[in-house]
């Protein structure tokens, strides 16, 4: 069974940092682009960041650019999301998702559309509060 498992969420004060991990089970991540999405209560799921299968191209939403960093370690079969300077508005459940359906050429414009992803994790809660 193909699964993604997120970990690393928790409660952090504004201005603090967290690193989320997305581990693959039942498959290897090498051939997959991976993205992080988040969903706050009452809001739609939104794309946060993505990384191509090669790791050469990364994307960030405007609200997290400069504060979050996505990276991958295919040897460990894990993708990370380093989050710094956290704000209360970053509070959400964070999901990772995997896709083989996007070409590199299409990736830049399409990565944040969740319809392209066929493998999802169960989510990890991030709460930013004093």
List the uncertain runs.
none
Query: What would the principal axes of the Cα set say about the shape?
Result: globular
How much of the sequence is in beta strands? over 45%
Structural Rg: 14 Å
As a percent range, the share of helical residues equals under 10%
Describe the biggest sheet? 7 strands, mixed
Total helices: the number is 1
Explained architecture:
With 130 residues, the protein is mainly beta. The protein has 1 helix and 11 strands. The strands form 2 sheets. Strands 2, 4, 5, 6, 9, 10 and 11 form a 7-stranded mixed β-sheet that branches. A 4-stranded antiparallel β-sheet has the order 1-3-8-7, with no helix packed on it. A hairpin with a 6-residue loop joins β4 and β5 (46-51). The protein is globular and about 40 Å long. The mean pLDDT is 95.
Topology:
Blueprint lengths: L2 E5 L2 E3 L5 E8 L7 E7 L6 E6 L6 E3 L7 E6 L4 E6 L8 E8 L4 H7 L8 E2 L3 E5 L2
Parallel strand pairs: 2-11
Antiparallel strand pairs: 1-3, 3-8, 4-5, 4-9, 5-6, 7-8, 9-10, 9-11
Summed up:
By secondary structure, the protein is mainly beta.
Task: Considering the chains and any ligands shown, give keywords for the structure.
1 helix; mainly beta; 130 residues; four-stranded antiparallel beta sheet
């Amino acid at each position: 069974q193909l699964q993604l498992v997120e970990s690393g969420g928790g409660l952090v004060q504004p201005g603090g940092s967290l690193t989320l991990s997305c581990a693959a089970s039942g498959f290897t991540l090498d051939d997959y682009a991976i993205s992080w999405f988040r969903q706050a209560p009452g809001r739609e799921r939104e794309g946060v960041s993505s990384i191509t299968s090669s790791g050469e191209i990364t994307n960030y939403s405007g609200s997290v650019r400069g504060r979050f960093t996505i990276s991958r370690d295919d040897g460990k079969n894990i993708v990370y999301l380093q989050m710094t300077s956290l704000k209360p508005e970053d509070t959400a459940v964070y999901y990772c998702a995997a896709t083989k359906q996007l070409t590199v050429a299409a990736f830049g414009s399409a990565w944040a559309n969740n319809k392209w992803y066929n493998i999802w994790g169960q989510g990890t809660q991030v709460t930013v509060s004093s």
